[in-house]
Design goal:
This protein is of the alpha/beta class. The chain is built from 18 helices and 26 strands.
């Protein structure tokens, strides 16, 4: 029995009686939230929901359970055998897991809520294999707020091996603004109408020019960030609300009950963060907010005690903007870019330590990760606490030595296993960018071995908001020495995910006194072949004691 159980259950007395006065039954752990029903002069406990015949992974190190029960919003009991029957009353909902895995609700620790929602109402470019196919998609697309929006494009997917410029886009849609974003949102493509409509100064860094000195419609770096902000700022709140409600069903279908909402900032828009702050309680999935700003006074005034997520120390490997210690394999004269100078980063990190503010810094290349580690080491030397659960987001190219230093400072690795699934294998984008160094990218095994807390996220919708894809990707790494066990992968999306959000006292375990955030899967994922993990479906999702998704 884990300590969390000991803090929440009715303690069993030496005489074999629980604190409720009822004789304790072997194999059953009761919580004080269990509903009580008077029956003939003595109290009997009952549950509102019981999940039976499951492979319940409680995340308490107790060997698991066959069933779990909830009363109200909380888990009230778990056990083995048929003792669940004693908790049934008229109206109790009994769900048969049919031998499938039962887990705490999945926690996605790096999630762009507003961008995911907006892109669900945009054109998905991922299926286009040529500029012509893309153009046909755009010509048939529905306009949203007077514009055609698209996302999920990659340069390598097109037979032309380049992004479409405004001259291509104008052929298919010239009477409305067209704005398309690359998969990682670091490149945008506009038609001529959009170039004029969104009023991005052509003098900004990142505006690609043709041989005549005119914009091609391809924006990178600062121009891309300004454009994205202009586009998102133009969307009315009614559209935002509609889009998020649409996204909720997709999250619940994938077993997600909590997301770390990474909102605002220079890559997105502060209105996104402000909208989530004002309205997050109106949605069924919990959305603890990471406000992407360096204005700590603003965050403190809102009552938030976490900041960052996409406070970017560097960029991405795909755009050659991740900061590397050695040059890119396909650009031997370039090592990427540090966005935040060391002295400014040091001061900001020290401010977060002084104000007891949890900080999440984005860093992908090993040179950027080194900058982050130096800032934390200097802050700790000045008396900063290692109990603040600061985070490194992505950490793709972290070296073994850097992983060990981060673990010593109790920094959390917030990683996206699907990155490695999409780009981390032989011949993939990572190898094209960094050569043999790809063999040491996304080294989840080393992070666990160093004793670091590792939590998982999707960076949705850079990758799908599907934790089972993340679990599959973490276990089935194309580079086997970087892979983790199924149990460790589950930890990334449950108990470790809760710890990374300071919610480990009420989420991440199937234990009495914890929120009844529960996911039922269609198979026993600890028994099936590892290569079949991605095929796993969520059959039931329960959030705070309410069944919000069911395929049964």
């Amino acid at each position: 029995m884990c300590r969390a159980f000991q803090q929440t259950i009715w303690y069993i007395c030496r005489r074999g009686h629980s604190a409720t006065g009822q004789t304790a039954r072997p194999g059953v752990q009761y919580g004080h939230n269990t509903t009580r029903l008077s029956t003939g002069g003595r109290d009997a406990m009952y549950a509102d929901i019981i999940i039976k015949n499951g492979r319940c992974v409680t995340m308490c190190g107790d060997g698991g359970a066959d069933w779990v029960a909830a009363a109200g919003k909380m888990i009230c009991a778990a056990g083995r055998g048929d003792d669940w029957q004693k908790l049934v009353r008229p109206g109790t909902q009994v769900i048969d897991a049919r031998g499938g895995t039962v887990l705490p609700g999945f926690i996605d620790n790096h999630f762009h809520v507003m961008q995911t929602a907006v892109n669900m109402m945009s054109v998905d470019l991922g299926g286009a294999r040529s500029h012509r196919e893309l153009g046909e998609m755009l010509a048939a697309a529905e306009k949203r707020e007077g514009a055609v929006l698209g996302c999920q494009g990659e340069e390598s997917q097109f037979e032309e091996k380049r992004f479409p410029d405004r001259y291509v886009l104008d052929k298919y849609c010239s009477d409305s603004p067209v704005v398309l974003f690359s998969k990682e949102y670091h490149v945008s493509m506009l038609n001529t109408h959009a170039l004029l409509y969104y009023k991005v100064p052509f003098s900004l860094e990142g505006v690609e020019l043709d041989g005549s000195g005119l914009p091609t419609g391809i924006f990178r770096r600062n121009a891309n960030y300004v454009l994205r902000s202009n586009v998102l700022r133009s969307l009315p709140d009614e559209f935002r609300m509609e889009a998020i409600h649409l996204a909720m069903s997709r999250l619940l279908e994938n077993g997600i009950t909590t997301v770390a909402a990474i909102e605002g900032g220079w890559l997105f828009d502060d209105r996104d963060a402000e909208f989530i702050y004002a309205h997050s309680g109106e949605f069924p999935v919990d959305m603890p907010l990471f406000y992407q700003t360096m204005d700590l006074a603003k965050v403190w005034k809102l009552g938030l005690r976490r900041v960052g997520g996409n406070i970017m120390v560097d960029g991405t490997l795909s755009s050659h903007s991740a900061a590397l210690s050695a040059p890119y394999a396909d650009r031997p004269d370039y090592r990427g870019q540090i966005f935040l100078p060391q002295d400014g980063l040091d001061e900001f990190v020290q401010q977060c330590y002084r104000q007891d503010m949890q900080l999440a810094l984005y860093s992908i290349g090993d040179r950027a990760i080194e900058s982050v580690l130096l800032a934390h080491e200097r802050a700790i030397r000045q008396g900063g606490s290692t109990a603040l659960r600061h985070r490194i987001e992505h950490a793709i190219m972290a070296t073994p030595e850097q992983i060990a230093r981060a673990a010593d400072m109790k920094l959390i690795f917030s990683v996206q296993p699907a990155y490695a699934y999409l780009w981390g294998g032989k011949g993939g984008m990572y190898e094209r960018r960094v050569g043999e160094r790809y063999l040491h990218s996304n080294d989840f095994a080393a992070m666990f071995a160093a004793g670091a807390v590792v939590c998982g996220g999707s960076d949705s919708d850079v990758t799908e908001p599907r934790p089972m894809l993340g679990i599959h990707a973490a276990v089935n790494r194309a580079v086997p020495q970087c892979a983790v066990s199924v149990e460790q992968a589950i930890e990334m999306y449950t108990v470790n995910g809760a710890y990374a959000l300071f919610e480990d006292k009420r989420k991440g375990k199937l234990a009495p006194g914890y929120l009844a955030d529960i996911v039922v899967l269609d198979r026993d994922i600890r028994a099936v072949p590892a290569e079949q993990l991605e095929q796993t479906d969520v059959t039931v999702t329960i959030k705070s004691g309410s069944v919000l998704h069911s395929r049964q």
